[in-house]
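Risk register update: the risk of archive-format incompatibility is retired. Evidence:
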Amino acid sequence: MTVDIKPRRSALYVPGNNERALGKAGTLAADVLILDLEDAVNAEAKVASRERVCAAVNSGAFRPREVVVRINGLNTEWHKSDVSAVANTDADGILVPKVESADEVRTLTAELEAAGASPSLKLWVMVETPVAFLRSAEIAAASDRLAVLVVGTNDLVNDLHAINRPGRAPVATALSLALLGARAAGKVILDGVFNDISDKAGFEAEAQQGRDMGYDGKTVVHPSQIQVSNDIYGPTAAEIEYAHVVVSSYEKALAAGESVIVVGGKMIESLHVRDSHRILSLDRAIQELNSANIPVLG
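Archived output:
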């Protein structure tokens, strides 16, 4: 199945109760800004933060970045008001934490439609618990409005009573299950956060692991992690050049009526051509984002 092609190499969580962070967010090089009304905001500040975030979204200050609002979960007192408020903004997505079933996805879809959300407002869900990882395929396939799965490894490690080790061996199976579920449904999937802001080498290794597995990007918690994530999850110059060669060679072979295509001594099949088109589409989307000429702090 075809996955939506948009740059989502880095998705920065921005605290919804922090005016300074909200003001700076539009100058950062993250592909996606996730304005957070959940973990980053204490109970007393939920309502005021919701109003602040919705106003910031509608101001247009974050464009052309993709803008997503993480709301409070289904079983919280703020959830329905969050859905109603975000559904009537210019946000690109609404991210819901701790989704555990296809039924919950369908409930969320119905809530957005009842709130009058535009079809362009996509549903993003967090896969964070053991049951959610085990049901990732049914969650991903439950709604056409659902566009992105976001892995939450912190909660998973806690629920498993595991120890968070370099290489993430305790959650490797879960990471693979979520990726398989997303790809089976043709959905985008983003890797979880890396908490140690000071450990640049550790972040780079974890981001590379996610990229090697097939994840589309990584959620990040600090501006210093953005460029590393962009570099790792974006196609390299060599990948782009090779993709051009594959597509060109395929088109020439078709025109000549040839059935066998060889590039660099390797047999090329239709699956390689499809992936080359994906790489080139992603590169074009990244170039379009970069051409916006917005001031970037890093």
